[in-house]
Design goal:
heterodimer, A: about 160 residues, alpha+beta, Ubiquitin-like (UB roll), DNA polymerase, domain 1, 2 domains, five-stranded mixed sheet, 5 helices, 5 strands, B: about 270 residues, Uridine Diphospho-n-acetylenolpyruvylglucosamine Reductase, domain 2, Enolase-like, domain 1, five-stranded antiparallel sheet, four-stranded antiparallel sheet, 10 helices
Amino acid sequence: MPVVSMTVNGKPVRGEVEARTLLVQFLRDHLRLTGTHVGCDTSQCGCCTVHVDGRAIKSCTALAVALDGAKVTTIEGLAANGALHPMQAAFHEHHGLQCGFCTPGMIMSAIDMVRRKGFDLDERTVRKQLEGNICRCTGYHNIVKAIQAGAAAMRPSGHGM
Amino acid sequence: MYDFTYHRPGSFEAAVRLTAAIDDAKVLAGGMSLLPTLKQRLGRHSDIVDLAALESLVGIKPDGSNLVIGAMTRHVDVAASADVKAAIPALAVLAEGIGDPLVRNRGTIGGSIANADPAADYPSSVLGLGATIVTNRRKIAGDDFFKGLFETALEGGEIITAVSFPIPGKAGYAKFPNPASRFAIVGVFVAKTGDPRTGGVRVAVTGAGPYVFRLGEAEARLARSFAPEALDGLVVSQDNLNSDIHASAEYRAHVIVVMAKRAVAQALG
């Protein structure tokens, strides 16, 4: 079987996988990083969103073997030294969730949104850019508020305020 | 998904050799169409040849009166490209509307065009701008490329390397998307090319039929007057249009005219 090596949340990992093993299966079943969820398994809901080499992708629609050598960040890799990432803190503060199943994907997608669209996000932009993530509780109102607040909190000059 | 043998060739020559040597080799680009198809076991291949390592297939460069986009260039990079926005802003609009941001971070222009999904966005720009598809063997005129539902002029062992878009005077793209998938229920690409051989205007429709097609009567009207009003009263035949749970052929015929007008308005800025 093919062997795949990648860096996941800053740590080198290595595993034997079938060629058809999806990235999300490698993360959840091989590495036991179960924070990344499988919602639809058909590339639509975005619950499985992780960052690969700095970009948010649907890990249910990527082959693990194809990402040999990649740098992967999952929801487990965001908090640093026991402190939540500003986007995680914003979801907590604004209660940007109901059942919480879509939350890891929402947060990974939101951080990618900030990378692409900046720290000052209006509601329309957030809703448009969130098209790849589905909340089945339909709890978008607070998710949008959380992302706007999280984006503002990620602004470098905002640290320590 | 059925298992397969995975290859990631380090050179384009090796990729061509592999796909030529293996009967049932399938080329993998961004995987946004191929992987879902394999997961549902709608497709099965003995070997997958991944082009991900081929940096030579990535990039956007103006080339005289053309804009050349490498086959492995991702939608997100086309949408954000200053060169695309300057030369063919309608193409950046089109790329920014494909799927969702997570799909755009992976999906590629070459993959979209080779797959030839009847509701994909890029085929309308190939036909609408009269682009040229460049492969390892030849150059294929956009008008000769799409042959049917998921069918193209590509032969076995032939791999797209780039798409060359002539820079138009004006162009616009308007799409009525399926609200769930963001695929086009109807998408219309309109370009004022200034090329007298084609009457100066091209109109291409995706999502509405079995594959992308040009709309001759709209082209003739817009050649006389490049304005949305020129399409007032245009009736598009329902013959050969798709009817499905998302929209009837009658509805699509109507929406084609609406989207064409919006595309013209966008082209006029």
